[in-house]
Protein backbone atom coordinates (compact mmCIF):
# COMPACT_ATOMS: atom_id res chain seq x y z
CA UNK A 1 0.00 0.00 0.00
CA UNK A 2 1.50 3.38 -1.02
CA UNK A 3 1.29 6.54 1.09
CA UNK A 4 -1.67 7.96 -0.83
CA UNK A 5 -3.70 4.81 -0.15
CA UNK A 6 -2.62 4.91 3.50
CA UNK A 7 -3.81 8.52 3.81
CA UNK A 8 -7.12 7.73 2.08
CA UNK A 9 -7.71 4.88 4.54
CA UNK A 10 -7.06 7.25 7.46
CA UNK A 11 -9.50 9.79 6.02
CA UNK A 12 -12.15 7.15 5.48
CA UNK A 13 -11.83 5.88 9.06
CA UNK A 14 -11.73 9.38 10.55
CA UNK A 15 -14.85 10.81 8.88
CA UNK A 16 -18.21 10.11 10.49
CA UNK A 17 -19.73 9.56 7.02
CA UNK A 18 -17.31 8.37 4.30
CA UNK A 19 -19.94 6.66 2.15
CA UNK A 20 -19.24 8.94 -0.83
CA UNK A 21 -15.51 8.13 -0.91
CA UNK A 22 -13.87 5.43 -3.00
CA UNK A 23 -14.16 6.28 -6.69
CA UNK A 24 -12.59 9.23 -8.50
CA UNK A 25 -15.99 10.98 -8.61
CA UNK A 26 -18.65 11.47 -5.96
CA UNK A 27 -22.08 10.51 -7.31
CA UNK A 28 -24.88 12.71 -5.93
CA UNK A 29 -27.89 10.78 -7.16
CA UNK A 30 -30.52 13.19 -5.84
CA UNK A 31 -28.96 16.02 -7.85
CA UNK A 32 -28.01 14.02 -10.97
CA UNK A 33 -24.41 15.12 -10.39
CA UNK A 34 -20.94 13.63 -10.43
CA UNK A 35 -18.25 15.78 -8.77
CA UNK A 36 -14.48 15.46 -8.82
CA UNK A 37 -11.45 17.52 -7.75
CA UNK A 38 -7.84 17.19 -8.88
CA UNK A 39 -4.76 19.20 -7.99
CA UNK A 40 -1.54 19.72 -9.97
CA UNK A 41 1.51 20.90 -8.00
CA UNK A 42 4.68 22.42 -9.40
CA UNK A 43 7.71 20.05 -9.22
CA UNK A 44 5.41 17.12 -8.42
CA UNK A 45 3.19 17.01 -11.52
CA UNK A 46 4.90 19.57 -13.76
CA UNK A 47 7.91 21.87 -14.02
CA UNK A 48 7.42 25.53 -14.82
CA UNK A 49 9.94 28.28 -15.48
CA UNK A 50 12.29 29.73 -18.08
CA UNK A 51 15.21 27.40 -17.34
CA UNK A 52 13.61 24.18 -16.10
CA UNK A 53 10.08 24.31 -17.48
CA UNK A 54 8.44 21.39 -19.28
CA UNK A 55 5.11 23.18 -19.76
CA UNK A 56 3.91 26.71 -20.53
CA UNK A 57 1.10 28.44 -18.65
CA UNK A 58 -1.11 28.07 -21.75
CA UNK A 59 -0.41 24.33 -21.89
CA UNK A 60 -0.94 24.01 -18.14
CA UNK A 61 -4.35 25.65 -18.48
CA UNK A 62 -5.36 23.06 -21.04
CA UNK A 63 -3.94 20.08 -19.15
CA UNK A 64 -5.37 21.08 -15.75
CA UNK A 65 -8.86 21.01 -17.22
CA UNK A 66 -8.30 17.81 -19.21
CA UNK A 67 -7.08 15.98 -16.10
CA UNK A 68 -10.38 16.77 -14.36
CA UNK A 69 -12.60 16.23 -17.37
CA UNK A 70 -11.05 12.77 -17.62
CA UNK A 71 -12.43 11.75 -14.20
CA UNK A 72 -15.95 12.81 -15.12
CA UNK A 73 -15.71 11.06 -18.49
CA UNK A 74 -14.48 7.90 -16.73
CA UNK A 75 -17.52 8.00 -14.43
CA UNK A 76 -19.87 7.94 -17.41
CA UNK A 77 -21.21 11.44 -16.69
CA UNK A 78 -21.28 14.45 -19.03
CA UNK A 79 -18.87 17.25 -17.96
CA UNK A 80 -20.66 20.59 -17.51
CA UNK A 81 -19.10 23.12 -15.08
CA UNK A 82 -15.75 23.83 -13.41
CA UNK A 83 -14.20 25.93 -10.67
CA UNK A 84 -10.49 26.75 -10.89
CA UNK A 85 -8.21 27.74 -7.99
CA UNK A 86 -4.63 28.94 -8.52
CA UNK A 87 -1.90 29.61 -5.98
CA UNK A 88 1.77 30.47 -6.26
CA UNK A 89 4.08 33.24 -7.39
CA UNK A 90 1.74 34.27 -10.21
CA UNK A 91 2.03 37.14 -12.70
CA UNK A 92 -0.13 38.65 -15.43
CA UNK A 93 1.47 36.62 -18.22
CA UNK A 94 0.88 33.35 -16.36
CA UNK A 95 -2.76 34.17 -15.63
CA UNK A 96 -3.46 35.22 -19.22
CA UNK A 97 -1.72 32.18 -20.71
CA UNK A 98 -3.38 29.77 -18.28
CA UNK A 99 -6.90 31.03 -18.93
CA UNK A 100 -6.39 31.15 -22.69
CA UNK A 101 -5.53 27.44 -22.53
CA UNK A 102 -8.43 26.72 -20.20
CA UNK A 103 -10.81 28.59 -22.50
CA UNK A 104 -9.72 26.49 -25.48
CA UNK A 105 -10.70 23.33 -23.61
CA UNK A 106 -13.97 24.87 -22.42
CA UNK A 107 -14.92 25.60 -26.04
CA UNK A 108 -13.91 22.13 -27.20
CA UNK A 109 -15.92 20.32 -24.50
CA UNK A 110 -18.74 22.87 -24.12
CA UNK A 111 -17.87 23.66 -20.49
CA UNK A 112 -18.23 26.74 -18.31
CA UNK A 113 -15.85 27.99 -15.61
CA UNK A 114 -18.15 29.28 -12.85
CA UNK A 115 -15.70 30.44 -10.17
CA UNK A 116 -12.60 29.59 -8.18
CA UNK A 117 -9.91 31.24 -6.08
CA UNK A 118 -6.55 33.02 -6.38
CA UNK A 119 -3.90 33.13 -3.68
CA UNK A 120 -0.14 33.54 -3.31
CA UNK A 121 2.40 30.85 -2.49
CA UNK A 122 5.93 29.59 -3.06
CA UNK A 123 5.03 27.07 -5.78
CA UNK A 124 2.28 27.01 -8.35
CA UNK A 125 -0.68 24.82 -7.50
CA UNK A 126 -3.76 24.31 -9.67
CA UNK A 127 -6.92 22.81 -8.19
CA UNK A 128 -9.96 22.19 -10.38
CA UNK A 129 -13.39 20.95 -9.31
CA UNK A 130 -15.65 19.66 -12.06
CA UNK A 131 -19.37 18.92 -12.09
CA UNK A 132 -20.91 16.44 -14.50
CA UNK A 133 -24.51 15.56 -15.33
CA UNK A 134 -25.56 11.95 -14.75
CA UNK A 135 -29.06 12.38 -16.15
CA UNK A 136 -29.98 9.45 -18.42
CA UNK A 137 -26.67 7.71 -17.78
CA UNK A 138 -25.69 4.55 -15.94
CA UNK A 139 -22.73 5.62 -13.79
CA UNK A 140 -19.56 3.56 -13.40
CA UNK A 141 -18.14 2.08 -10.21
CA UNK A 142 -14.79 0.44 -9.54
CA UNK A 143 -16.74 -2.38 -7.91
CA UNK A 144 -18.85 -2.97 -11.04
CA UNK A 145 -16.68 -5.55 -12.81
CA UNK A 146 -17.62 -9.23 -12.75
CA UNK A 147 -15.92 -12.49 -13.73
CA UNK A 148 -15.64 -13.05 -17.50
CA UNK A 149 -16.32 -9.44 -18.44
CA UNK A 150 -14.79 -8.02 -21.63
CA UNK A 151 -11.88 -5.62 -20.97
CA UNK A 152 -11.61 -2.65 -23.33
CA UNK A 153 -8.97 0.06 -23.49
CA UNK A 154 -8.95 3.43 -25.26
CA UNK A 155 -5.87 5.59 -25.79
CA UNK A 156 -2.18 5.00 -26.44
CA UNK A 157 -0.30 3.96 -23.31
CA UNK A 158 3.26 4.89 -22.41
CA UNK A 159 3.31 7.87 -24.77
CA UNK A 160 2.87 10.52 -22.06
CA UNK A 161 5.79 9.19 -20.02
CA UNK A 162 7.99 9.17 -23.12
CA UNK A 163 6.90 12.74 -23.88
CA UNK A 164 7.92 13.82 -20.38
CA UNK A 165 11.26 12.04 -20.82
CA UNK A 166 11.91 13.92 -24.07
CA UNK A 167 11.09 17.24 -22.38
CA UNK A 168 13.29 16.37 -19.39
CA UNK A 169 16.18 15.29 -21.66
CA UNK A 170 15.98 18.66 -23.37
CA UNK A 171 16.52 20.37 -20.04
CA UNK A 172 18.72 18.01 -18.05
CA UNK A 173 21.16 16.58 -20.63
CA UNK A 174 23.54 17.89 -23.29
CA UNK A 175 22.65 17.00 -26.91
CA UNK A 176 25.16 14.11 -27.00
CA UNK A 177 23.34 12.36 -24.13
CA UNK A 178 19.75 12.79 -25.31
CA UNK A 179 17.65 9.93 -26.68
CA UNK A 180 18.66 9.30 -30.30
CA UNK A 181 17.52 7.16 -33.23
CA UNK A 182 18.74 6.49 -36.79
CA UNK A 183 17.21 7.83 -39.93
CA UNK A 184 17.11 5.83 -43.19
CA UNK A 185 20.73 6.79 -43.91
CA UNK A 186 21.96 5.55 -40.55
CA UNK A 187 22.75 9.05 -39.29
CA UNK A 188 22.47 9.87 -35.59
CA UNK A 189 19.51 12.18 -35.13
CA UNK A 190 17.18 13.22 -32.32
CA UNK A 191 13.65 11.83 -32.42
CA UNK A 192 12.11 12.58 -35.78
CA UNK A 193 10.16 15.81 -35.46
CA UNK A 194 6.70 14.30 -35.98
CA UNK A 195 7.35 11.49 -33.49
CA UNK A 196 8.84 13.87 -30.93
CA UNK A 197 5.85 16.20 -31.21
CA UNK A 198 3.38 13.30 -30.93
CA UNK A 199 4.94 12.03 -27.70
CA UNK A 200 5.14 15.52 -26.20
CA UNK A 201 1.52 16.27 -27.14
CA UNK A 202 0.45 13.03 -25.47
CA UNK A 203 1.97 14.39 -22.25
CA UNK A 204 0.89 18.02 -22.54
CA UNK A 205 -2.55 17.61 -24.11
CA UNK A 206 -3.88 14.08 -23.55
CA UNK A 207 -6.68 12.75 -25.75
CA UNK A 208 -9.94 11.97 -23.97
CA UNK A 209 -12.79 9.73 -25.07
CA UNK A 210 -16.17 11.26 -24.17
CA UNK A 211 -17.94 9.42 -27.01
CA UNK A 212 -16.87 6.05 -25.61
CA UNK A 213 -17.95 7.13 -22.13
CA UNK A 214 -21.39 8.17 -23.40
CA UNK A 215 -21.83 4.91 -25.31
CA UNK A 216 -20.97 2.79 -22.27
CA UNK A 217 -23.07 4.88 -19.87
CA UNK A 218 -26.17 4.94 -22.09
CA UNK A 219 -26.08 1.47 -23.65
CA UNK A 220 -24.74 -0.86 -20.95
CA UNK A 221 -27.63 -2.52 -19.15
CA UNK A 222 -25.56 -4.38 -16.58
CA UNK A 223 -23.24 -3.02 -13.91
CA UNK A 224 -19.80 -2.12 -15.26
CA UNK A 225 -16.46 -0.64 -14.20
CA UNK A 226 -14.69 2.20 -16.01
CA UNK A 227 -11.63 4.19 -14.91
CA UNK A 228 -9.19 6.55 -16.53
CA UNK A 229 -5.54 5.51 -16.60
CA UNK A 230 -4.13 8.75 -15.20
CA UNK A 231 -1.98 6.94 -12.64
CA UNK A 232 -1.05 4.17 -15.08
CA UNK A 233 -2.75 1.24 -16.75
CA UNK A 234 -1.64 -1.19 -14.05
CA UNK A 235 -2.96 1.17 -11.36
CA UNK A 236 -6.42 1.20 -12.96
CA UNK A 237 -6.46 -2.61 -13.24
CA UNK A 238 -5.26 -2.97 -9.65
CA UNK A 239 -7.93 -0.65 -8.25
CA UNK A 240 -10.74 -2.33 -10.18
CA UNK A 241 -9.36 -5.72 -9.18
CA UNK A 242 -9.38 -4.82 -5.48
CA UNK A 243 -12.83 -3.20 -5.56
CA UNK A 244 -14.54 -5.81 -7.76
CA UNK A 245 -12.65 -8.91 -6.55
CA UNK A 246 -11.69 -9.90 -10.09
CA UNK A 247 -8.46 -10.50 -11.95
CA UNK A 248 -7.33 -9.53 -15.44
CA UNK A 249 -6.12 -11.63 -18.38
CA UNK A 250 -4.52 -9.15 -20.79
CA UNK A 251 -2.87 -9.57 -24.19
CA UNK A 252 0.04 -7.11 -24.22
CA UNK A 253 0.12 -6.81 -28.02
CA UNK A 254 -3.48 -5.59 -27.99
CA UNK A 255 -2.69 -2.60 -25.74
CA UNK A 256 -2.72 0.54 -27.94
CA UNK A 257 0.75 2.13 -27.95
CA UNK A 258 3.09 4.04 -30.21
CA UNK A 259 6.35 2.17 -30.96
CA UNK A 260 9.59 3.99 -31.75
CA UNK A 261 12.92 2.14 -32.23
CA UNK A 262 15.93 3.98 -30.84
CA UNK A 263 19.55 3.90 -32.00
CA UNK A 264 20.49 1.00 -29.74
CA UNK A 265 17.57 -1.13 -30.95
CA UNK A 266 15.36 -0.61 -27.91
CA UNK A 267 11.70 0.22 -28.39
CA UNK A 268 9.94 3.02 -26.56
CA UNK A 269 7.70 2.93 -24.71
CA UNK A 270 8.94 -0.27 -23.08
CA UNK A 271 6.80 -2.76 -21.14
CA UNK A 272 7.10 -1.01 -17.76
CA UNK A 273 6.37 2.41 -19.27
CA UNK A 274 3.23 1.10 -20.98
CA UNK A 275 1.93 -0.39 -17.72
CA UNK A 276 3.21 2.09 -15.14
CA UNK A 277 4.05 5.30 -17.06
CA UNK A 278 0.87 7.16 -16.14
CA UNK A 279 -0.75 10.38 -17.38
CA UNK A 280 -2.11 8.75 -20.52
CA UNK A 281 -5.73 9.45 -19.46
CA UNK A 282 -7.11 6.57 -21.49
CA UNK A 283 -10.19 4.59 -20.48
CA UNK A 284 -10.09 1.08 -19.01
CA UNK A 285 -13.55 -0.49 -19.30
CA UNK A 286 -14.94 -3.79 -17.99
CA UNK A 287 -18.40 -4.66 -19.38
CA UNK A 288 -20.50 -7.78 -19.73
CA UNK A 289 -20.28 -9.84 -22.91
CA UNK A 290 -23.92 -9.03 -23.69
CA UNK A 291 -23.35 -5.28 -23.39
CA UNK A 292 -20.18 -5.53 -25.45
CA UNK A 293 -21.95 -7.29 -28.28
CA UNK A 294 -24.75 -4.72 -28.24
CA UNK A 295 -22.41 -1.71 -28.39
CA UNK A 296 -19.33 -3.27 -30.05
CA UNK A 297 -19.46 -1.49 -33.39
CA UNK A 298 -19.96 1.92 -31.83
CA UNK A 299 -17.27 1.43 -29.20
CA UNK A 300 -14.70 0.24 -31.75
CA UNK A 301 -15.52 3.12 -34.10
CA UNK A 302 -14.68 5.58 -31.28
CA UNK A 303 -11.34 3.91 -30.53
CA UNK A 304 -11.99 1.23 -27.90
CA UNK A 305 -9.86 -1.92 -28.26
CA UNK A 306 -10.56 -5.32 -26.71
CA UNK A 307 -7.43 -6.28 -24.76
CA UNK A 308 -8.62 -9.22 -22.65
CA UNK A 309 -11.12 -10.40 -20.06
CA UNK A 310 -11.63 -10.39 -16.31
CA UNK A 311 -11.25 -13.57 -14.24
CA UNK A 312 -12.55 -15.00 -10.98
CA UNK A 313 -9.25 -14.64 -9.09
CA UNK A 314 -7.52 -11.32 -8.37
CA UNK A 315 -4.33 -11.99 -10.33
CA UNK A 316 -3.31 -9.50 -13.01
CA UNK A 317 -1.81 -11.53 -15.85
CA UNK A 318 -0.18 -10.03 -18.94
CA UNK A 319 0.41 -12.71 -21.60
CA UNK A 320 -0.22 -15.33 -18.87
CA UNK A 321 2.50 -13.90 -16.60
CA UNK A 322 1.48 -12.40 -13.26
CA UNK A 323 2.57 -8.83 -12.60
CA UNK A 324 3.95 -8.65 -9.07
CA UNK A 325 6.23 -5.62 -9.19
CA UNK A 326 4.36 -2.42 -8.37
CA UNK A 327 5.95 0.60 -10.04
CA UNK A 328 2.95 2.90 -9.74
CA UNK A 329 3.48 6.67 -9.45
CA UNK A 330 3.81 7.87 -5.87
CA UNK A 331 2.13 11.24 -5.25
CA UNK A 332 3.63 11.49 -1.74
CA UNK A 333 7.37 10.93 -2.00
CA UNK A 334 9.36 10.56 1.21
Record the SSE blueprint.
Blueprint: H1 3-14, E1 26-28, E2 33-41, H2 57-75, E3 78-87, H3 92-109, E4 112-119, E5 125-133, E6 150-154, H4 159-172, E7 180-182, E8 188-190, H5 193-204, H6 210-219, E9 225-228, H7 233-244, E10 247-250, E11 260-261, E12 267-268, H8 271-276, E13 283-287, H9 289-301, E14 305-311, E15 316-318, E16 321-322
Parallel strand pairs: 3-4, 10-15
Antiparallel strand pairs: 1-2, 2-5, 3-5, 6-13, 6-14, 7-8, 9-13, 10-14, 11-12, 15-16
Helix pairs in contact: 2-3, 2-6, 4-5, 6-9
What does this structure look like?
This protein has 334 residues and is an alpha+beta fold. Helices cover 35% and strands 24% of the residues. The chain has 9 helices and 16 strands. The chain has helices spanning 3-14, 57-75, 92-109, 159-172, 193-204, 210-219, 233-244, 271-276, 289-301; strands at residues 26-28, 33-41, 78-87, 112-119, 125-133, 150-154, 180-182, 188-190, 225-228, 247-250, 260-261, 267-268, 283-287, 305-311, 316-318, 321-322. The strands form 4 sheets. A 7-stranded mixed sheet has the order 9-13-6-14-10-15-16, sandwiched between helices. It has a 5-stranded mixed sheet with strand order 1-2-5-3-4, with helices on one face. A two-stranded antiparallel sheet has the order 7-8. β7 (180-182) and β8 form a beta hairpin. α2 runs parallel beside α3 and α4 (159-172) packs across α5 (193-204). The longest helix is centred in the first third of the chain and has 19 residues, at 57-75. The model is unreliable at 181-189 (pLDDT under 50).
Amino acid sequence: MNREETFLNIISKTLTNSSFLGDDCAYLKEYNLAVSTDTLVQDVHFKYGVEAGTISSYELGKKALLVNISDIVASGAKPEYLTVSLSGNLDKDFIEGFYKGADEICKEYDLKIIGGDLTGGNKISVSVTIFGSTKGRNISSRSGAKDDYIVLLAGEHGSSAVGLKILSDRIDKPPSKRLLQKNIHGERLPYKEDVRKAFIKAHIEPKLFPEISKTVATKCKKEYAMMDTSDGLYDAMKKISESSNVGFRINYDKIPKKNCVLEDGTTVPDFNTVLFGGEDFGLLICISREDFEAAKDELISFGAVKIGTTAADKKILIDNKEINEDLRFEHFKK
